[in-house]
Write a structure and sequence with these properties.
By secondary structure, the protein is of the alpha/beta class. It is built from 13 helices and 13 strands. A seven-stranded mixed sheet has the order 2-8-7-6-5-3-4, with helices on both faces. Strands 9-10-13-12 form a four-stranded antiparallel sheet. Strands 1-11 form a two-stranded parallel sheet. Bound molecules: pyridoxal-5'-phosphate.
């Protein structure tokens, strides 16, 4: 009865791991959602917004005050100027923004390139659009990519490259040199870049986030995607946004208007107040996550893994060759059952170099210190 696009739809790896973790009462270092609440000051502004009498449909492209706040923050932080009327769209989380962008750019049979390991919704959006996703591998030991491999993946049907910076699941932060290669390639083959920057505010070791749209040659061909979920530990609200040149904005809005049409009105209103005053909070949150990264990274090494130090996001990957010869799936199951610690196997994030994925597990440090310490105790248990 169902369409081909939903045939063979697999359960996501997060559901698989979460179900097993619940059965074995395992500490979850798996799904990228905090186990602590959204900050009080943010919740207070949200509560007020529900009493502001703005509880009916929001405008299709987003509440004007919120679009102004988004435009303002990109101008202040990066000198980017996105026009409030023609270049900003508020979406139901970055997930919808990714879906809208893929559908806006790719017809059935077209191709889109993603760096692997990738966030799993990229593949799902391509499947729904009927286009083919091709993967270019970020190789161990440091998750760098090879320009030749990138160019080899491009065909006359390639429409876009999707990049996630800082990166989930590796914690990689792309360098200006890498982004310059991306710009050269995008311009050479006339490709659009979909740039998923939801971890923009989680960049460590004194590094600075480089928005793709600020890289020379990319301003006119980049769709920038962001979300309030990660910065504000508020993954339950699903407020995301897209900033892009006017023609690309028209294209994504043509999809958005038939997917959700409009997004939660009062919460957008609240974010129009929250975003402009969030700079100090963002820095503190990032510093706290950096400490937890250092804690978990050190423990992970002591447990016998070989992690790749992340420069951003709240994830990192580690190989486990010294601990087991099993595959990532099998070792994930073993750890949940025998150590009560839940991690995400990496192979579902790979399309071509799946063997690299079989050697890796993803760790997540957006957890309370109590949870991280419990994971340490569990892992050390005989
Ligand atoms: C790389 C990446 N992009 C997008 C999203 C989805 O963001 P949202 O919750 O705003 O839909 C996530 C969430 O885990 C993510 O890791």
């Amino acid at each position: 009865m169902s369409a081909n696009r939903v045939a063979n739809s697999e359960t996501t790896i997060f559901t698989v791991v979460n179900t097993l973790a619940a059965q074995h009462n395992a500490v979850g270092l798996s799904q990228g959602a905090p186990d602590f609440d959204t900050p009080r000051w943010v919740l207070d502004i949200i509560k007020e917004a529900f009493d502001a009498g703005r509880n009916q449909y929001a405008p299709m492209s987003g509440v004007p005050e919120f679009r102004q706040a988004i435009s303002g923050i990109y101008r202040t932080k990066y000198g980017l100027s996105f026009d409030t009327a023609t270049q900003i769209t508020v979406t139901s989380g970055a997930t919808e923004a990714i879906f809208d962008s893929v559908l806006a750019l790719c017809d059935p049979g077209d191709e889109l390139i993603a760096f692997e390991p990738f966030f799993d919704s990229y593949a799902g959006s391509c499947k729904m659009a009927g286009c083919t996703m091709k993967a270019v591998t970020l190789h161990l030991p440091d998750f760098s990519f090879d320009r030749k491999e990138l160019e080899a993946a491009i065909t006359p049907r390639t429409k876009a490259i999707i990049i996630n910076n800082p990166n989930n699941p590796t914690g990689k932060v792309y360098t200006m040199e890498e982004l310059t290669v991306l710009s050269e390639v995008a311009n050479k083959y006339n490709l659009t870049i979909i740039s998923d920057e939801v971890y923009e505010n989680l960049v460590f070791d004194g590094l600075k986030h480089i928005p793709t749209a600020t890289v020379p040659g990319l301003a006119d061909r980049t769709i920038t995607i962001n979300s309030t979920a990660k910065t504000f530990s508020a993954t339950g609200w699903k407020i995301g946004y897209i900033c892009a040149p006017a023609p690309l904005t028209q294209a994504v809005q043509a999809v958005h208007q038939w997917v959700t049409f409009a997004v939660n009105h009062p919460i957008q209103l609240a974010f129009s107040k929250i975003l402009p005053i969030s700079a100090d909070y963002s820095k503190e949150f990032c510093a706290e996550m950096e400490k937890r990264r250092d804690y978990l990274l050190a423990r992970t090494t002591e447990w016998g893994f070989d992690p790749v130090k992340p420069e951003g996001s709240y994830f990192f990957m580690a190989t486990f060759d010294r601990l087991s010869k099993k595959s990532d799936m099998e070792f994930m199951e073993e750890l949940i059952k025998t150590k009560q610690v839940a991690l995400i196997p990496a192979s579902p994030f790979y399309l071509s170099a799946v063997d690299e994925g079989h050697r890796l597990l993803r760790f997540n440090f957006v957890k309370s210190m109590a949870a991280l310490e419990q994971a340490d105790k569990n892992m050390r248990r005989l």
